[in-house]
Each structure stands twice: as C-alpha cells, then as structure tokens.
Amino acid sequence: MAKILSLRLNYKGKFLDYAKEGKEIKKKFVIGSNKFLQWQILDPAFPDKHTLIKKKGGEYVMELPPDSQVTCERGRDTLDTQYLKQNNLLAGNELVLKEDIQGTLTLAPNWSVDFDFREPWVAVLTPEERAIVAQYARRSKPDSVTRFNRTVIWIVVILTVLFLAIFDQVLRPEYKSILNVGDILQSQQNDAQKVVPDITPGDVATFTEPDKSVEKKPGTTTTKRPGGTTTGRATGSSSLTSALQGFDASAVGTAPAYEIATVAEGFSPGRPGGGRGSGPGIGGSGGPAGGVGAGSSYDPATMPIFGDLGSVVGKAPSSGGYTKAPEGAQGVHVTGDASKLAPSGKAWGDVAKQKKVAASYSSRGISTISEASIGSMDEGSRAKFNPVREQIQARQSQIEQAYRESQITQRVSFTITVYISSNGTVRESVVVPNGSYPGSFVAQIKTIVDNWTFNVREEMAYRFTIRAGK
Predict the structure, then answer these.
(1) Cα(41)–Cα(47) distance, integer angstroms
(2) Stretch 212-225: mean pLDDT
(3) pLDDT tens digit string along 396-417?
C-alpha cells in the first residue's frame, strides 16, 4: 500500500494534532497565527498565514518559514544542509519531501512539526475502550419538561398541516380549476366589462380660430413670443357649461407677451479740456485751430470711445502662490499639549546614568549588538543573540497595549538599547523616540523595558527598533 504524508504538531515536545494527506493535506496546507486556521501557532513573531505544504510537480514541497530550523534523517543517518542542496532536495526555502526521509521542523522556541510518510492506518479500539463507548454513546432519558415541550411542538405541527389541507380544499375552491397563466388571463377577460361613455353630439364643444391680424396703435409695436401658440375662445352648449360648474370659455384670453432687451453700455476716460465740442474757453477743440489760451491738443479719436467697464472694476488683483513645498521642512503631528512632548532623537530619563552604564560595559569589552547585524554573524553568535530577539518580539504586545491606552493617533517608533545583567534583568535601558511623542507615553515605554527579564546567563548590550500603531 502506498505511503501518505503525515504531519504531527508538537508544543513543548507534547503532541497536539496530526494532519494526513488526502484529508487535511490536499493541494496545500496553511498554518499561522490566524485564529481561523486548523493549526494556530500562538507566537507573535509567526506570520498570520503561511503555506507550509504545497504540491509542485507531483511532489509535496515544504516551505520553511523565516528563522526556522529543519533536521532530516534517512533511516539512522542525519542529512545536513549541504547534502540536501547537492541532491536538489533543498532550494532556497523549499524542501522536497521524499518517502524515505523524515524530519522535524522547528517553527518557534516551543513549536515543532514532525513529518514523514506512513501507510494509511485506522484506529482500532481496545475492548476496554469499546465498553466505555457503549456505556456513554446513548442519549439520556428526557425529563418531564422535555417530554411536554415535544408534545406541544407535535400538536402545533399537526394542527398546522390540517389547517393548510382544509384551506386548500374548502376555503378556496375557485382556484382549483385554474391550471396555468392562460386560464387566469381568460378568467379575468371574461369578468371584464367594457365601459362606454354616454355623450351626445350636442355636448361636444366647438372651437373657432380667432383672427390672426392684430390691430396696431400708433407708436406701438406688436411682438410674439418665440414658440408661442394662438389660443382661441371656445363656444359650446349650455349643458357643457353647466357641467363645468359655470366655466365660461369666452373669458379665456391669450397670455401677455414680453420682450427682454439687453443693452451694452461703456465708458471712456477723458481729460480736462478734452472733448469733441467746439467753442471758446478751456476744453474747446473744434479742429486744429480750436481752443484759445489753455486749449488742449488731445484728440479723442486716437483711442477707443467705449471701454469694458466689467474688466476694469470686476477684476481682482492677481496674486500667485507657491506650488512647491519648501525644502528641508518637516511637519510634526502633535497630540495634546506640545509643551509635554518628549524631544525626538534624544534619550529619555537619567542620561548621565545611562552613559555611565554604557561606559562600564564598553570598558569590559562588551560591545553593543544591533538587531540588523545578527544575520551576518556566525552560527555561534546567532545562537547567542537569537533568543534575545525572539523574546523581545514576544513582548511586542506590551508596547501595543501602552500605545492603545495612550490614545495616540500617529505611528510611533523607538530605538532602544538594553544593558542586560548576567541574571537576565535589565540593568539600564536607553529609550530614544524617533518622533515627538507625549513624555508620559515615552516614560511608560521605558518602565516596561526596564522590567523585562531575559533568559540569558551572561552580560550583553543589545540595540533594537520597536514600532507600534497602524
């Protein structure tokens, strides 16, 4: 019988659950910290969703999560990373699973997954287990309240069915002969009645077209509205007039017509003494020899007589603004009282004490290791500082809780250096806010960091960056 892929999830070395090919494992198998997944890894550093197993080229491939470790065995021989790469079993973060290879994938400090290929199995119960199942695999006897409720429900159901049957057979017999939509339409057409109004020829009103000629009075002009129609006066019998409650059609006339004219007006500037008039005195021009004494040679014909008044008095002074933001400027979002903000880029707390502790560590040859430099270290150094990084990531929720309690609307970031003692406690911390945040919030972050305890047995200085917010 062909073997199938089997996975076992362990927490602190204890078995939790298993997944088999064909049941839980089909084309792919997804795990993560999301609560809606079958295998939920309760570790803040683990991704929300991660495709652990996928089918590729007819074989199952395991995608190794970041910072995970895998060990493989074939029989009793351990297969190292170099062997897996040389035999095209490991490429990047993808490990090809073979039937003769089993191993363990370490996802987090407390979580691991065992993988291998096994023959399909069915759980067989022992006689003792069967006796226990036979003892408890039956329903308990209902009490008096349960029996009464069931009786009431059955009575209501039976009465409802009887009422529907009686209603269908007795109360609406007229619908029994109607089989389709055509029968319904034919039934409605048979029941319909044609209504013919009783109108005599003498009750119909007649209209006469009035004379289209309009009498003009001297000095007046007759105009007609665009699109207008000529309305005549209706004459009809007295019976129609009485039916309309005394309405007199002869009193109806045409609506008045209106004309709207738009006149363009302008102005022209003038000078003292300017004008077209002729005559003696100041301002007379009348020609080349016009004017005496203080006469002007200004000729108004050399400039326009009419000007656009609107363009002179209706135009506001033009002004231009800057369309490019000034270089080198940086905006600061302030929440609350700006006088209580911690300065950006400066350490919070007793700076003299922090410098003294840093100098003490430096004098003993303990250098400060940054979070970004761990990836370039050798295996021994990574094994030394990886637990510190993982413990800090596990405590990210404490920073998020303090951020929510402070009700800050901006995203926050801190560069923190912790000086850890040999017993794992924080001797001193240097908290540098990367922005202007309330001083009470920065002080709370420093208090949280100072109370941390790490699972280490030697002194070390570690610098990392932590963020909170959306």
Answers:
(1) 9
(2) 47
(3) 888 888 888 888 878 888 899 9
Entry pTM: 0.31
Tell me the pLDDT tens digit for each residue of 296-353: 455 555 555 444 445 444 554 544 444 555 555 454 454 445 556 777 888 888 888 8
| Alpha-carbon gap, residue 232 to 252, rounded angstroms | 8
**Hey, where are the domains in the chain?**
4-118, 344-468
Domain 4-118 listed as CATH 3.30.420.40: no
In what side-by-side order are the strands of the sheet with 460-468? 368-370, 460-468, 412-420, 426-433
Q: What is the pLDDT of residue 232?
A: 42
